[in-house]
Amino acid sequence: MYVKTVVLLLCTCLIGWIGPSEAQMPPTKISTLEVRGNIRSDASLILATSGLSVGKELTMEDTQHAIRRLYALGVFRDIRIVVVGQSTEGLQIAIEVKEFPTVSKIVFEGNNKIKTKELKDVLRFAEGQIVGEKEIKKAQVRIKRLYEEKGYLLAQVTSEISDPDETGKVALTFRIKEGKKVKIKRIRIIGNEAFGDAKIKKQMETKENRWWRKGDFKEAIFQEDLKKIAAFYRKNGYRDMEVVRDSLYYDESKQHLFVDIVVREGPLYWFGAFTWEGNTLFSDKEIAEKITVSEGDTYDQEKFEQIYTSLAFAYQERGYLSVQILPETTEEGQTLNFHFVIKEGHPSKVRKVTIVGNTKTKEKVIRRELTVIPGEVFRRSALERSARNVYLLNYFGNVEPDVEPLENGDVDVTFRVEEKSTGQAMMGAGYSEQYKLTGSLGLGIPNLFGNGQRLDFNWDFGTRQEKFQMSFTEPWLFDTPTSGSFSVYKLTYKYSSYDENRNGGYLSVGRHLTWPDDYSTVRLIYRLEEVGYRNFSEGYSDPYGFRERTWPQRTSSISATYFRDSRDKPEFPSRGSVYSYRMEFASKILGSDKGFHKHEVNSEFYYPLFWKTTLVLKNRMGYVNGFGSGHDVLPRERFRPGGTSFDGVIRGYNDMSVGPSEGGRAMFITGLECQFPIVEQQIYGLLFADAGNSWLWFSETDPFDLKRSMGFGVRVMAPMIGMIGFDFAYGFDHFKDGKREGKWHTHFQFGKRF
To answer: Which residues fall within 8 angstroms of residue 726, CB to CB, at 6 or more apart?
Structure first.
């Protein structure tokens, strides 16, 4: 239309100029060029975009290109290039435009089931922008699709643009007829003989409407369900199965949806023989070990793909990234024989390793965690382990490895990291039955100056306690996989019968191990501490003769810890385990006033369940005893579990309240948790059950004499604070006047003690 307009205008101007000689031909150069009709658009931008300029020869091709370029700006609904006059110097050209209006206001009418904010989010434009008719039509489609996703399949969406105001702006109104939510009345499977309707429907997330479930229809989920049905058949031997068609229709009320799915099952197949050729890196026996099915087993597409993947992974683990494994299938009736043609190629080496995105953390802190080394043969497991090691530093919100193949067969590896806030500042106040009013101030810097070092200050204060602690950790001492740390502390506890003062510190050195595996660490700790008891109450029976002793007394000990951590993530892991064993030895030989030996075993096992739910099994055992007659052990060294005590978590009870009042020499705690994400990697909910106790003597230990509790809680990962936990637990084994009774108890705490 617009090209025709230009042609007619140009022809009209040129007809009268046609003459017998070239000297009399009209000029076709542009003598003047102007823009008309633009209100918000800059004239210089329009001229520059058109490509036309004064002095340039004007051709039909130029005008077509100019119109296309101007339309591409997306701000004009009409464009014309017209000749407004001519002279001996050339043509006087005007570019006439009509702009799309600016939408000053967007209104939704009739939306009761979906909030206006959610509707605006799908528009892809906002108030104050220039919006064309195409964008408005696309927005209508997106709004309708949003309603369909929520089960309103009969929703209708129209739009209306108001007349422009004095500034040329318009209001855009979307009118919505939501209709009633459509429920699935019936799902019918047609053509199935091998499996009943119920078995097939069980594979689907789309369900029929029942009193206990909604029965909503969502197109995207339904399409995935069709794929699940096909996968189910192929897993059970029906390799050729296909979904022929599906149809949706309504009853007269248009409130009930009927779904028909037509399938063609095909024959049932069995696995036949597996053969291969071309393998030189692996022996026939090693290849055969990857074949996890037997001849005569029902064909399973999933198992076949696992066999293929395990073969490919085995080669990639040796660096053969370019290996080709070509499966050939032959049919003997309903038996499928498979032959793998293996083209091994050559091993790929790592040319270089690049780290991108570390704006705070120094590169050496990341690089020392990598097991992918330039010059070595590339191994897939080394890549995955490197990414895990870097992620477990807990300095990064995301770690993504990328492998780029090179022309010579080698690879470049890039680790892309996203720094996250790691510093933790804490300030709070609270009240507990044991410590009454309490307050706390803390500062934790896990990645000091980007060097990977950790510095912590903590001060807890209150009417019955005061604690100060400072610690520093260097995870790679002298740039070796050896850690070093120290800590100093001063603590005062005011119990009902006496006050306890503790001053001390420790030095620690640790080392990463490569045996029995590289998940393991050992650590040696020297601890020096002075403990004093004073201000005994008149009613204190003093069963341990504290009044007669000379205080303070010194504890000088050496401990050794073996620690193994194979978790997949530092926070909210979903698989793996944590295991530790600690043995501590104090003796007069080391300068200790009292000698003792102490043993602790801790374990945590993480098992992924359905969806993103994780089951966690926790166990903790401890034993301590003194040397010499009486086997005397200070209360400080004994086990006092209960609540969220450092000695052992048994929620539903006061802190340090489970077991003998002066602490036990033996302890056992077990717990079960079910964790699930509310906001992934930020907020998690959990259900838990705890049980445990401590006993004065090891001979009194009874695994059936445990304090039990159940409850629920939430974990929040807060920036600059760290982990915050809220737990609500019901303890079953409280006693009052000799009678057992249950009580609810609330727990709130910072950190990872839960």
So the answer is: 713, 714, 716, 746, 747, 748
Q: What CA–CA distances, in Å, run from 497 to 63, 161, 540?
A: 98, 81, 6
pLDDT tens sequence across 55-69:
888 888 888 888 888
Cα dist from 320 to 345, 380, 407, 507, whole Å: 7, 10, 14, 47
**Strands, E, within 293-359: which ranges?**
324-332, 335-343, 350-356
Q: Domain count for the chain, please give it.
A: 7
Indicate whether 748 and 648 sit together in one domain: yes
CATH number for the domain that contains residue 115: 3.10.20.310
Q: Please give the sequence-ordered ranges of beta strands (E in DSSP) within 24-150, or none if there are none.
A: 30-36, 76-87, 90-99, 102-109
Range of 331's domain? 270-343
Q: Is the pTM of this model over 0.70?
A: no
- The whole-angstrom distance between residue 327's C-alpha and the CA centroid of its chain comes to 36
Residue 520 forms part of a structural domain = no
Return the exposure string of 352-389: e unless at least 16 CB atoms fall within 10 Å of the residue's CB, then b. ebebebbeebeeebbbebbebbeeeebbbebbebbbbb
| pLDDT surpasses 60 at 270 | yes
Provide the pLDDT for residue 15. 39
- Residue 538 maps to a domain: no
Question: In sequence order, which residues have a C-beta less than 8 Å from that of residue 573 and are 6 or more positions away?
Answer: 567, 606, 614
Average pLDDT across the chain, whole number: 88
Comparison of pLDDT for 325 and 751, the residue scoring more: 325
Are 156 and 118 in a shared domain? yes
